[in-house]
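Next comes a concrete protein, fold included:
___
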Amino acid sequence: MAQEKLAAEETMAVAITVTAEEPTEAGETKPAGAAGENDGKAGETEMSGATEQYADTMAWAGYEIRRLVDVYGPRAPGSEAEWKAQQDMGAQLGAWADKVEFEGFAVHRQAFMGFIPFTVLLTMAACVLFWLGHALVGLCLVAAAAIPLVLEFAMYRQFIDPLFKAYPSHNVIATRKAANEINGKPKKRIYLVGHADSQYEWTLNYRLGGVGMKLVLIPAVVGMVICFIANLVRLLAIDVAGLADEGFLHWLLFITGIVLFALFPADIGFLFFQSRTKSVPGASDNLSGCFVAMSVLRDMAQTGTRFADTEVVVLLTGSEEAGLRGAKAFVKRHKKELRDPDVLTAAIGVDTFRDLKDIAIYNRDLSGTVRHSPKMQALMKAAGTDCGFDLPSASIYIGACDAVAFTQAGIPATGFAAMDPTPPRYYHTRLDNADNLEPDAIRAGAEITRAAVERFAQAGL
């Protein structure tokens, strides 16, 4: 029964609401009702009736983020709380979109960080084997330890996912259509992508802060590299070449062994990097991004704006914190639509608007290995200028945002966020709550994103 239920989740795509529209002149349409004035119709939620009083984006977003955190709490990937929060936001989007859909997929939420005990214990065993002179076995162990670290955490590949339990997760797709379509298709389509889930707490960041966390993680990873090189040198020099373990070689290997054991505390600290049971409120990361994206449709509906040939889609993904699983599932399912040569398609990954001083366009992503579209970066740069910001380019040197899934599929995309790269102590910890929001960062994110959408609608890329 559990497998049947999961299979059903994976194929689900149900439209929950269609907003009535009244045609107006100049190829635009006017919403039949202003946001929040649905008289109990689709799009209204039991607890969101107060939204209509907040014309200001900051106040509205801040109110709704606090409400979602209070009502649903932390939203671990593939959790019931994630799903309920998505349903809530989907219902709100129904007031501004022509169509809101939910699509299910399976997520193995513990797999993304599940490699840590395996990687740490194998590395420590390889260090011991180096001391005992079993270089070949040690080399094999440290290589095996590195594989899931690289594939799961660095490259976001689903390498060990089948070893972990699957849970149902979802994506929310809210579409505001173009006024004029040809054969049922717009000429242009832009996705605004934010994730609804929140991460399991990074215990080291909460206890030690961003710098302290790095002082644990970097030595642990460096120790793994040293262990690999040390076992390789011992294997080639002594076991293969037959050199005697004496003189310079002896002291080199001896000192290396001391260094490896000196790094054991960092290895042990790595074991406590992340909680396996406690997820965080995720107010800034990434309800702020969700509401930045949602604000564009809200503003379009309230002002009666509908682009002539450009469709605007808000995509609220699930399980981004488990390795971009929601965005990857969406791109895989909609690959043909995304690559339609008749529709110019682009995407903006909006993720964490908390530190206005660090607002930036991400030109590199996925630990610096993916380069986003220069044209999308230029679009965001110009949109920032429109709003009085000189947006710098930045790189996500550890981690990734949902824009990666689109870029890897050949869709012009870029990431956009306002977050201290240290990272700050609130990042992925219990401190990421509604009291920690920065309204000005959310306002800037919303204004610039709207400006980018308008520029795309006017001139494309």
Notes: The CA atoms of residues 19 and 25 lie 19 Å apart. The longest strand covers residues 167-176. Residues 2-110+166-200+278-459 form a domain with the Aminopeptidase fold (CATH 3.40.630.10). The chain has two domains: 2-110+166-200+278-459, 122-159+205-271.
